[in-house]
Amino acid sequence: MIKRQMTKAVAMTACVIGVGVAPALAQPDAEVQYIFNSLMFLIGGFLVMFMAAGFCMLEAGLVRSKNVADICLKNISLYALAGIMYYVVGYNLMYADVGDFIGAFSIWGPGELYDSEIAPEAGGYASASDWFFQMVFVATAASIVSGAVAERVKLFSFLIFVVILTGLIYPIQGAWKWGGGFLDQNGFLDFAGSTIVHSVGGWAALVGVLMIGPRTGKYGDGGRVMPMPGSSLPLATLGTFVLWLGWFGFNGASQLALGTAGDATAISQIFANTNMAAAGGVVAALILTKALYRKVDLTMVLNGALAGLVSITAEPLTPNIGEAILIGATGSVLVTLAIPMLDKFKIDDVVGAIPVHLVAGIFGTLVVPVTNDDASFVTQLVGVVCVAAWVIPTSAIAWAVLKFTLGIRLSPEEELAGGDVSELGLEAYPEFVDRTAAASYGAAATAAPASGERVASGTA
Q1: Which residues of the chain have pLDDT under 70?
Q2: Nearest-5° angle of CA 313, CA 204, CA 108?
Q3: Which of 96, 125, 269, 347 is disulfide-compatible with 37, CB 3.0–4.6 A?
Q4: What stretch of H or E contains 29?
Q5: Using CB atoms within 10 A of its CB, is residue 89 exposed (0-12), middle (13-18) or buried (19+)?
Q6: What would the DSSP string read from start to end of 223-251?
Q7: pLDDT digit string (tens) for 279-304?
Q8: How far apart are CA 411 and CA 426, in angstroms?
Q9: Full-model pTM
C-alpha cells in the first residue's frame, strides 16, 4: 500500500526525534509488527464502520419524521454498495499500478490467504486488513451526500450516484495522493482525508443539492427561511457522539502502523488532538450561537463538534493540543457562519453536511502548514483545487444524466407524503406522523389507525 507513505515517514521521524523515543529501543520482531499493524487496521476499520451508524443516527434525527425510515434505508444501502464497488474496481483504481493519475481497472484480491505460508517483513500487514480499512473510508464519503439531499431525492437515483461516487469519482482522486500520484509527488499533505474524503463528499453533495433544488416550502417570500425541525435531537446528539468515537479510528489508524514505540506514541498524540479539536469545535459553536442568536443552538453545536473533527483530519499528528483546540474552534466558527449563508442563497442542506465536510475540510487542508513545516500553502491550495476540478464536473454529469433519465426528485405529492410512505410503504414512527398528506397520496401503508393508536398532527 502506497497510501500516505511519505507522510507517515515524516511523522515517524518527527515523533522519534521530538519525543526522544529510542533509537535505543530494539526493533520489534517482524511477525509481531505484522500482527499489531494488521490489528490496528482492523480496529480502526470497525471504528470507522461504526461511523456509518453515527451518520445514520445524525441524519435520522435531523430529517422530519416522515422521512426517517427512508434515510435509514439510504444509509445502510450506501454502505453495502460502497463495499461492493470498492472491491470490484475502487481499491485497485486507487492503489494498483498508479502512475500519475489512475490505477488499474480490476477486481481486488488479497496478497495472502489464511492457509498461506506467511513470511512477514518489518512493517508488514495483512492485505485484507488494509482493504477493509480503506473501504470504510469510501463509505464515509458517500454518507456525507445522503444527509444533504435528504427528504426529496429518489432512492434508486441516489443509490446509482453512490455507485458512481464510490467506484470511480472517489478512488481516482484518491490515487492522486494516497496512491502515490501527482499530488503526492508534489508534496500535497492530507493525513487522514480532510480533502480526499470529506471535501469530496462535500463537493458531490453541493452539486446534488444545486441540481435537485430545495425542499418544497423551505424558502418563503423574500427568501424567508421556513423552519423544518428534525424528528429527534437526542438521536442526532447520539449520532454525533458515535461519529466522534469513530473518528479515533479514522485519524488514529491513518498512522498506518502500530509496530513500534514511535507508532504507539504518534497514535496517542493523534487521539488526543482529534478529541480536543472536537472539544474546541463544541465550545466555539456554543459561545458563537449564544452571541448571535441569544440562545444556544444544539444542532449548530453538534455540527461544531464535527467541524472540529474534519478540520483536524488533514494533520492530526503535528499540532500540540492547544493548537488542535484552536484548529477545531476555527473550523467550527467557519461552519457556524456558513450554515445560514447557504440559506441566503437558497441552498437547502438538510443536515449541514456541506459546511461541515466541505468548508471545514478545505480549512483543515489549508491550515496544515501552520503546524507542519513540510507542507506548503500553495501546494495545499493546488490539491484542494485539483480535487474540486475533478469532483464537481464528474458529479454534475452523474446527477444530470440521472435527472434526465430516471429523475432525481420525488414528485410534490411524494415529497409531501414523505419518503417513508412514498418509497418504502411504511413509517418509522407510525404513531406520531401526520397522516393527512400520506392518505392523500394513497399509500396502502396509511390505512386508518387501530383503536387506541395515537395520531398527532403537524409533527412531520
Answers
A1: 1-26, 119, 433-460
A2: 75
A3: 125
A4: none
A5: buried
A6: GPBPP---S-HHHHHHHHHHHHHHHHHHH
A7: 999 999 999 999 999 999 999 999 99
A8: 18
A9: 0.89
